[in-house]
Design a protein that fits this description.
The chain is α+β, with helices and mostly antiparallel strands. It contains twelve helices and nine strands. The protein folds into three domains: about 120 residues, no CATH class; about 90 residues, Phosphorylase Kinase, domain 1 (2-Layer Sandwich), CATH 3.30.200; about 190 residues, Aminoglycoside phosphotransferase (APH), C-terminal lobe (Aminoglycoside 3'-phosphotransferase, Chain: A, domain 2, Alpha-Beta Complex). Helix content is about 40%, strand content about 10%. The strands form three sheets. Strands 1-2-3-5-4 form a five-stranded antiparallel β-sheet, with helices on both faces. The protein has a two-stranded antiparallel ribbon with strand order 6-9. This is Phosphotransferase. InterPro entries: Aminoglycoside_PTrfase, CcrZ_PhaseVar_Mediator, Kinase-like_dom_sf. GO terms for molecular function: transferase activity.
Length: about 425
């Protein structure tokens, strides 16, 4: 879609020629107001290049002062107004060169991005600026062969509870996934540096997609895109083998502290029904006993800690592990519990998974380990949902499974 051009006979005498500099706007420029954040006032009615220039200056200001982009109703109205100006100028989505005077993003010298206009309204708050800067850093992506131009956004992938991911394509057809943080990693015990190191080890072992770019300040991660096989299946033997290979990866300095995570989620638990609240309170003593016991266990290895079906993918006939943000040194039994409980495996499938993972028939002690860590997983899972997204929680089903697991631990005891 080409940029609209001026109609013959358009009035070219309105106002002075636009200033082509990209210097920040003064405190009270015609299109900015720093008192209450950015104010996208009415852009001049013509000629077209003046409107483009005004948009360019406004976007440059947003790049230099992202804190002026508030997330309230007033800020949303300003962004809607900006998007309206974009539509009025017929500026295409994610098209390089759409704006003659391109806005420098976040003031990085030498990095310019004309695609920032495409994400003014579709993405919430500051996400469009972060995505634009990640795309503008394409020269720093670790790719062989190196990219020849800035990738183009194809669309948003299925949104998770915590982050947002976007599929982008290079000019030579290679596809990548850009992930932007939606939560504070530290608040959830996540180490982005540990994840980045684990991704490299996992890629070298053939367990995940190739990582290409990491920027913790932007909360951004870029990896190659793995197309999913059409005839995807879920083979427990493959899952067990994937777990075994993950647990054989090099160690990290980051450790999963289940006790600290439980305490944190208890502190930030949101609204839940009275029955669920009563259940969690009734299990406090049992859970605390298991937490104290697990701190005495020293058999630690690198674990994924979130290897649910949604984070496993068959591509080219091979099973890969995705979304490594919770990876840390921990117990292999917690990783097994994540799969068994998170995927709600039937008892016979739990036995199959254990047999394939252990390479032998599971014994009573193995089942005790799995039950203990299953209790911790189910308990923390309920606290996590209650603290982050209670509207997505199936309280009744989750409560029943938690109660059953707790009774099993009380009956069989700890290893």
């Amino acid at each position: 879609m080409a940029v609209a051009t001026e109609q013959p006979g358009a009035d070219r005498r309105r106002g002075p020629a636009p200033d082509q500099s990209l210097d920040p706007a003064p405190a009270h420029h015609g299109y900015f107001s720093r008192g209450a954040g950015v104010c996208a006032q009415r852009l001049p009615p013509g000629p077209l290049h003046r409107c483009r220039h005004a948009l360019s200056r406004l976007l440059h200001h947003l790049g230099r002062h992202p804190d002026h982009l508030d997330g309230g109703a007033q800020g949303a109205g300003k962004l809607d107004l900006l998007a309206g100006h974009r539509r009025r100028l017929h500026l295409p989505l994610y098209r390089p060169g759409a704006v003659p005077v391109l806005a420098a993003v976040y003031g990085l010298p030498g990095h310019r991005c004309g695609r920032i206009l495409a994400v003014v309204t579709p993405l919430p708050r500051d996400r469009q600026l972060r995505l634009a800067q990640v795309l503008g850093q394409w020269r720093h992506w670790s790719c062989l062969p190196a990219l020849g131009a800035e990738p183009t956004v194809q669309g948003e992938l299925s949104a998770g509870f915590s982050n947002a991911s976007y599929r982008v394509t290079s000019d030579d057809g290679r596809q990548f996934v850009v992930r932007l943080d939606g939560v504070d990693p530290a608040h959830h015990g996540i180490s982005r540096q540990a994840e980045w190191h684990a991704l490299h080890s996992a890629f070298e072992a053939g367990l995940t997609a190739q990582p290409c770019y990491f920027n913790p300040d932007l909360g951004a991660l870029v990896c190659h895109y793995l197309p999913e096989d059409e005839d995807s299946r879920d083979d427990l033997e493959d899952v067990a083998q994937l777990l075994r290979r993950i647990h054989a990866l090099p160690a990290l300095h980051h450790r999963l502290d289940l006790q600290e995570r439980t305490i944190r989620y208890r502190r930030h638990t949101g609204t839940m029904d009275s029955a669920t609240d009563a259940l969690l309170r009734s299990l406090t003593a049992t859970v605390d006993e298991v937490l104290a016991w697990q701190r005495t266990q020293n058999d630690r290895c690198l674990c994924h800690n979130d290897l649910l079906a949604a984070n496993r993918l068959y591509s080219g006939g091979k099973l890969y592990a995705l979304d490594w943000e919770y990876c840390a040194m921990g117990s292999r039994w917690f990783d097994l519990a994540v799969v068994c409980c998170g995927d709600e495996l039937a008892p016979e499938n739990v036995e199959r998974l254990l047999y394939s993972y252990l390479q032998r028939a599971p014994e009573s002690g193995d089942r005790q380990y799995l039950a203990a860590y299953s209790l911790l997983y189910r308990y923390i899972e309920m606290l996590w949902y209650a603290a982050t997204s209670p509207e997505n929680m199936e309280w009744r089903n989750k409560s029943g499974a938690l109660r059953t697991t707790a009774e099993r631990v009380k009956s069989n005891g700890l290893p």
